[in-house]
Amino acid sequence: MRSGYDPIGRRMASVACAAWLALTAPAMAQTPPQAPPAPTGTAPYDALREKTNAGTVGLISGGVEGTYVRIAADLAAVLDGPELRILPVIGKGSVQNTMDILFLRGIDIGIVQSDVLAFLKRDRTVPGVDKSVHYIAKLYNEELHLLGGKDAQKLEDLRGKKVNVDTKGSGTFMTASLVFEKLGIEVEPTHFDQALALEKLKAGEIAALVYVAGRPTRLFRDGKAEDGLHFIPIPATESLQEIYLPSTLTSADYPGLIPEGESVETLAVGAVMAAYGWAPNTERYQKVARFVDAFFSRFPQFLQAPRHAKWKEVNLAARLPGWTRFAAAENWLKTMAANDAREQRQQFGQFLNQVAPAGGGLTDQQREALFSQFLEWQKAGGAKPAGAATR
User: Fold this and answer.
1) Cis bond upstream, residue 39 (ω within 30)
2) Residue 386 confidence (pLDDT) above 50
3) What is the mean pLDDT of the chain?
4) Among 58, 123, 139, 354, which one has the highest count of C-beta atoms within 10 angstroms of its own C-beta?
């Protein structure tokens, strides 16, 4: 035997090497070789980088189970194209979404609740927040659900009791804080997630839970009055109507919790598409303006299947008290209103030519009076005059 030769050791080393190759081969096969980094400072890559970033709009939405994220997914599906890309981001509630609109790089637009400005102004979290955050459009309404247990039949029964208001910073937490404060009812807040809170309510560990969501929400889909659960009415007092709209929950929404044909009064809070109020001469303003033009121009596509049913509740021209409209959105709506007015004038002129050629000797004052009646007739659902222009 040669000096230093160890056949057993060599065999063991060979076996170990084979085992290592067997273990690592699949991983190596599944891992593609890394591409070399893109060169920097060259005109083609710089231009591509600029185009990609200029056309990408970061949109902060909501949690994976909520409506906001589905609205964001619809926006991406309808608006994505060669010049525009919507990048939906999972959010952590209206308060955090608003802070992200203000301060987070890459976030251009967010979906928040309409009471977020009132909440932030009350807490003085961001001075002048109502001047910095503007709205593009009010979307749909979400209802405030106040589900009580056996020992809580009315609002006053909740005084000093444990009421779940969701995690801190969430939209539900924010709305519950404002509502209970305006009603003058002090509760002991808990911050469980909604599914766990529902179980604790059934077990009698908490008196009620608050949940802001579009009706009907699947959280209460299987709820039964036999379990001692019921919705507690929330009247739309004068102070609450400064921020919220009156609404109702019906037996059609929750047949297991509300007797047939009955309803429970509650409040509605609007979902809002918001953006930072950039100055018109900035690059970020132009990016959001491109989004606004695409969103408003293609809005009819959101009313078709398979888009979310909540789009049918959206009125792009609806005003939002306490908020400032983003300038590009305001300008777009004014331009369309002017175009509609011109079209109505054309239709009216065609109508007059049919019923009274050459104006029938009408004075300008008579024409204006007749035109006002014509507009009222159209608003009432009258058909367009024969021969009127169509869009």
Assistant:
1) no
2) no
3) 83
4) 139
Q: What is the pLDDT of residue 47?
A: 79
* CA torsion through residues 250, 252, 254, 256, sign: positive
Unique residue bearing structure tokens 């994220």: 69
Q: Whole-angstrom Cα distance, residue 330 to residue 6?
A: 85
| pLDDT, average across residues 198-211 | 96
Give long-range contacts, CB 8 A cutoff, 24+ apart: 305-311: 307/74, 307/77, 307/78, 308/67, 308/70, 308/71, 308/74, 310/67, 310/71, 310/139, 310/140, 310/214, 310/271, 311/71, 311/74, 311/140
The pairing of beta strand 208-213 with beta strand 109-113:
unpaired
Judged by average pLDDT, the poorest of 1-15, 198-212, 237-251 is 1-15
How big is the chain by its Cα radius of gyration, in Å?
30
Q: What is the pLDDT of residue 390?
A: 35
142 has pLDDT over 80: yes
Strand, coil or helix: what is 259?
coil
**Helices 94-103 & 171-183, crossing angle to 10 degrees?**
120
Instruction: Report whether the peptide linkage leading into residue 216 is cis, meaning its omega lies within 30 degrees of zero.
Output: yes
- β-sheet bridge partners, residue 188: 162
Identify whether the C-beta of residue 162 lies closer than 8 Å to the C-beta of residue 205: yes
User: What does the pLDDT read at residue 324?
Assistant: 95
Question: Amino acid identity, residue 47?
Answer: A
- Half-sphere exposure of residue 365: CA atoms within 13 angstroms, side-chain side: 0
Give the model's pLDDT for residue 388: 39
Geometric angle at alpha carbon 208, from 203 and 211, rounded to 5°: 115
Q: Of 207, 198, 199, 204, which Cα lies nearest the Cα of 152?
A: 207
Domains in the chain (CATH in brackets) are 45-325 (3.40.190.10), 343-391 (no CATH)
- How high is the pLDDT of residue 25? 42
Tell me what pLDDT residue 347 has.
66
Across the chain, the runs of DSSP E, i.e. the strands, are 56-60, 85-89, 109-113, 133-148, 162-164, 188-190, 208-213, 230-231, 245-250, 263-276
- In 10 A of CB 333, how many CB atoms? 16
pLDDT tens digits for range 311-321: 999 999 999 98
- The C-alpha atoms of residue 227 and residue 202 are separated, in whole angstroms, by 7
Cβ-in-10-Å burial (0-12, 13-18, 19+) of 326 comes to buried
